[in-house]
Amino acid sequence: MATARLSAQRVVIVGAGPAGIRCAETLLAAGLKPILIDENRRDGGQIYRRQPEGFTRDYATLYGTEAAKAKNLHQSFDRLRGQIDYRPDTLVWNLTPGQLCCVSQGKHSTVDYDALILCTGATDRLMPIEGWQLAGTYSLGGAQIALKSQAVSIGHRVVFMGSGPLLYLVASQYVKAGANVAAVLDTSPLSKRIAAVPKLMARPGLLFTGMKLLAQLYRAKIPVHLGISPLQVQGDAASGVSGVRVRTARGETLTVDCDAVALGYHLRPETQLADLAGCRMRFDEASSQWWLAVDEEGRTSVNGVYAAGDGSKIRGADAAEHAGRLAAMALLEDLQQPVNAGLRDEQRHALAVMDEFRLGLAQAFPWPADQAKALPDSAIVCRCEMISAGELRRTVSEKGACEVNRAKAFSRVGMGRCQGRYCSQAGAEVIAAAAGVSVQQVGRQRGQAPVKPLSMLTEEVSP
Amino acid sequence: MKGRFVRLAEQGRPTVKLTVDGSPIEALQGDTLMVALLTQGSALRQSEFDSGRRAGFCLMGACQDCWVWTRSGERLRACSNEVREGLDIVTTQPEAIWPLHG
Q1: How far apart are CA A173 and CA A19, in angstroms?
Q2: What is the pTM of this model?
Q3: So what's the ipTM on this one?
Q4: Is residue B91 within 8 angstroms of chain A, CB to CB?
Q5: pLDDT value, residue A4
Q6: What is the per-residue pLDDT across A350-381, written as a single tens digit (0 to 9) for each?
Q7: Inter-residue contact A237 to A134 (CB < 8 Å)
Q8: Inter-chain touch B58–A260, beta carbons under 8 Å
Q9: Burial (Cβ within 10 Å: 0-12, 13-18, ≥19) of residue A82
């Protein structure tokens, strides 16, 4: 909690998405001048990612139903930009108490902090399927970035597969932009969605938007299948994806020809920096994954370290804006500075509603843990280093590795280029199923520095 | 396959000339290296662990599946670096002298 030692001298925010921008804005309004470090070249994070200079599509075309929010956030940032210490294109790759290790354009530097607010965002949450390593399989979020940031489709004929609201959002954005969408294949059955309606009614507008997206897909005559079980991404090593094969809810095998697959099951938080800072994690039962343990306002278990947005709890971009403001107010409060109680209660109330909604989403589009159990031994779990489910299972059966980090040491699942971002959650499910224990019991992959690969050519610069 | 990615809009941008594996290609200003390469080809690189070709995965700098190199040996993520006039890109790891897959 607040101590006299906490100082307002050097406040650093990591991440310039919705949480980081609202946090910076709130701190600036209170007279603090934060340093805002972001790995991207432009502000906005992923969901409100800005297109490169010289691109001409308007907000409605780019962000659809989220256009007003995107514009508002970008305009807020444009007002802030000159008044804060903004450092884009900068990766925080490690931290020690009071100091961040950064790299920008191949140059290493350190940044000291008294208070740190982590707004590190999320990436797609992936469940492997036989053949997902073939060229032409992309993460769902990646498929959206291709369109939003570069005005391209990931293929000539695209299948959207997985589950979650993003599946329908991106598929309909592709249809609207004139891409050829072959099918939308959702692992979640209709019954789960109906059961989740009471919770989803916490945000009726958003529920309605979701239904509108689905209606758009039906109107465009895009085949939408619910309750499918993914079987295989078909194709060959040289030319990549040529189709997908799934089992339908009725038990029939369905093959769809395509040259690209957008695959994803909602999101997972980027918690590596918080992990390196020693922040406590907690297992979220509803989404069946490890999140940061934060209090209602964004305080982590480590004094002076705060977190907001999807990097701590997956609640989406709207919640991230509220959480960013709240984390800033928590810091101000801990610095014994006045905060606007009305504004704080407004954020808290909004977040309570979004918490209820996110429980509905978790129920409507569940993480398909059973797929890991059913994954054939030949299927690749680690696409970085081509390590199969069978190899991972053998670390459990032959070496008794029933804990994620131990199994990683034996199998290298989680040790490749992506550092476990796209395999460790599914890997944990494979291990848990092979060991006959719950996924919570097998633990979570520890964060390691550097949190992303650094080039050996990285140069040291004096601060 | 002519190209993996399909341009849907924003095609009125000025062109940029660069070299990929010794051959000249034309891209559009603001293209990432990934888009420049994959609108004209089907893959970015060769996997080090099997015979598979790779074409990136996450497009947000998280998976590291899209590494390419400059002729001078600087490693670039193709998804998060834009094309520049005269850039000389190689898609095989310059320092690798061992057989990459077997």
Answers
A1: 24
A2: 0.96
A3: 0.95
A4: no
A5: 45
A6: 999 999 999 999 999 999 999 999 999 999 99
A7: yes
A8: no
A9: exposed
Q: Which residue from A57, A385, A452 is facing B10, i.e. has the nearest CB? A: A57
Q: How many CA atoms lie within 13 A of A129 on its CB side?
A: 29
How is residue A408 written in tokens?
A: 């990683």
CATH architecture of A11-123+268-361: 3-Layer(bba) Sandwich (3.50)
Residue ranges of chain A whose pLDDT lies below 50: 1-4
- Hey, what CATH class is A126-265 in? alpha beta
Nearest CA in chain B to A156: B6
Residue A38: name the closest of A104, A125, A101 by CA: A104
Write out pLDDT tens, residues A22-33.
999 999 999 999
Going by CATH, does the domain composed of A369-435 fall within 1.10.10.1100? yes
Domains of chain B by start residue, with CATH: 15-90 (3.10.20.440)
Chain B contact set for A384 (CB, 8 A): 49, 63-65
With beta carbons under 8 A apart, name residues in chain B contacting A106. Answer: 74
> What pLDDT score was predicted for residue B94?
77
Rg (alpha carbons) of chain B, rounded to whole number: 13
Q: Where are the beta strands (DSSP E) in A218-373?
A: 224-226, 229-236, 240-247, 253-257, 260-265, 267-269, 281-284, 289-292, 305-307
Quote the CA–CA distance of B25 and A227 in Å, as a whole number. Answer: 44
CA A116 to chain centre: 20
Rounded Cα distance, A165 and A371, in Å: 20
Rounded Cα distance between B84 and A244, Å, is 37
Instruction: Work out whether strand A99-104 and strand A107-112 pair parallel, antiparallel, or are unpaired.
Output: antiparallel
